[in-house]
């Protein structure tokens, strides 16, 4: 009898990438002025970043998070101007 | 005397490669060749230019994907040997993403794509590309970019200033550096920088699009012409 295939769990890794503190964010400023003109008068500050969702296979949550972190460090984020937070959710 | 050989990179999405080839060949008299992004040998060249455009459609960030092109590995070695490398506009963004130059380029302060003539004042004439110019020379050059706002954090800006890596700043026609003459919100009005070794230079304005009065100006020729002096010095 052949050995059963080892199927690694599948995960959605999300990288939330935001402009670093002190980095100008003219998009955020433009969005804020839009919100204010829509009478959201309590709007104090807006920062616009990006969310990147990657499907991966990984043995554990720690492994999935580690993959996401390395992806951010190598490509998804530019540490000169951006910071990131990685999360992982199992989908199968 | 052998002619200076310059290679101009061509990534998928580059659009300034032919402008650069034309300027270097017809206006400066160099021997030129377009270098495909998949090539892996740059031994034949005396200088490399990374042109403007939108490499890989600027996906993710300007220059972020182009940085992983096969041609970038030999470029790193080329730069480390001290040979001249110039990044124009998108080429500048690629060099920053590849960490061959410090800093990053952000969206213009106005969020508009800027396509007009600017002036820049030369701050450092002792780089491979500005050797034909004098400090405080003012060049009139066009810009064409949406992400040209140069950024480094304050501490690193101080390092760049101290090391003399700020090669040129945006200025008014008379050479005054002020915020009105800064088209994109770059820190310290920076238009061009170089690496510590001074052989890798990046700038947002387009010298290759200002090489003949017929196309609006010829100051770009004064900038690119610096490579003749550098190559001559290297040969002697």
What is the gist of this entry?
The complex is a heterodimer of chains A (92) and B (236). With 92 residues, chain A is α+β, with helices and mostly antiparallel strands.
Report on the structure:
- The complex is a heterodimer of chains A (about 90) and B (about 240).
- Chain A is of the alpha+beta class and about 90 residues long.
- Chain A has a domain at about 10-20 and about 50-90: Mth169, Chain: A (2-Layer Sandwich).
- Chain A has two helices and three strands; from the N terminus they run βαβαβ.
- The radius of gyration of chain A is 19 Å and the shape is elongated.
- Chain A starts with 9 loop residues before the first strand and ends with a strand.
- Chain B has one domain (about 5-235): Rossmann fold (3-Layer(aba) Sandwich).
- Helices cover about 20% and strands about 25% of the residues of chain B.
- Chain B has helices spanning about 15-25, 70-80, 90-95, 155-160, 220-225, 225-235, and strands at about 5-10, 30-35, 45-50, 85-90, 105, 115-120, 140-145, 150, 165-170, 190-195, 200-205.
- A nine-stranded mixed sheet of chain B has the order 2-1-3-4-11-10-9-6-7, with helices on both faces. In chain B, strands 5-8 form a two-stranded antiparallel sheet.
- In chain B, strand 1 (about 5-10), helix 1 (about 15-25) and strand 2 (about 30-35) form a beta-alpha-beta unit.
- Classes of the chains: A alpha+beta (about 90), B alpha/beta (about 240).
């Amino acid at each position: 009898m052949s050995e059963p295939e080892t199927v690694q769990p599948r995960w959605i890794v999300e990288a939330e990438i935001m402009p670093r503190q002190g980095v100008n964010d003219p998009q955020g400023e433009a969005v804020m002025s839009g919100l204010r003109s829509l009478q959201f008068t309590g709007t104090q500050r807006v920062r616009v970043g990006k969310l990147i969702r990657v499907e991966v296979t990984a043995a554990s949550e720690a492994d999935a998070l580690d993959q996401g972190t390395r992806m951010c460090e190598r490509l998804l984020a530019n540490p000169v101007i951006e910071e990131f937070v990685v999360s992982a959710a199992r989908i199968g | 005397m052998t002619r200076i050989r310059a290679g101009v990179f061509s990534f998928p999405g580059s659009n300034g490669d032919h402008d650069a080839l034309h300027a270097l060949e017809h206006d400066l008299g160099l021997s030129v060749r377009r270098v495909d992004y998949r090539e892996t040998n740059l031994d034949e060249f005396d200088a490399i230019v990374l042109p403007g455009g939108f490499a890989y459609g600027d996906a993710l960030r300007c220059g972020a994907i182009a940085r992983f092109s096969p041609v970038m590995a030999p470029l790193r070695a080329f730069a480390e040997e001290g040979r001249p490398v110039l990044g124009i506009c998108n080429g500048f963004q690629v060099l920053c993403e590849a960490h061959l130059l410090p800093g990053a380029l952000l969206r213009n302060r106005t969020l508009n794509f800027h396509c007009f003539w600017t002036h820049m004042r030369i701050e450092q004439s002792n780089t491979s590309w500005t050797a034909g110019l004098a400090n405080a020379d003012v060049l009139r050059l066009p810009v064409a970019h949406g992400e040209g706002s140069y950024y480094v954090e304050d501490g690193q800006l101080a390092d760049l200033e101290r090391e003399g890596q700020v090669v040129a700043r945006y200025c008014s026609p008379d050479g005054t550096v002020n915020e009105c003459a800064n088209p994109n919100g770059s820190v310290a009005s920076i238009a061009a920088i170089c690496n510590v070794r001074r052989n890798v230079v990046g700038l947002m304005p387009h010298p290759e699009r200002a090489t003949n009065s017929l196309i609006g100006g010829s100051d770009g020729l004064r900038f690119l012409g610096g490579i003749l002096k550098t190559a001559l010095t290297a040969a002697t």
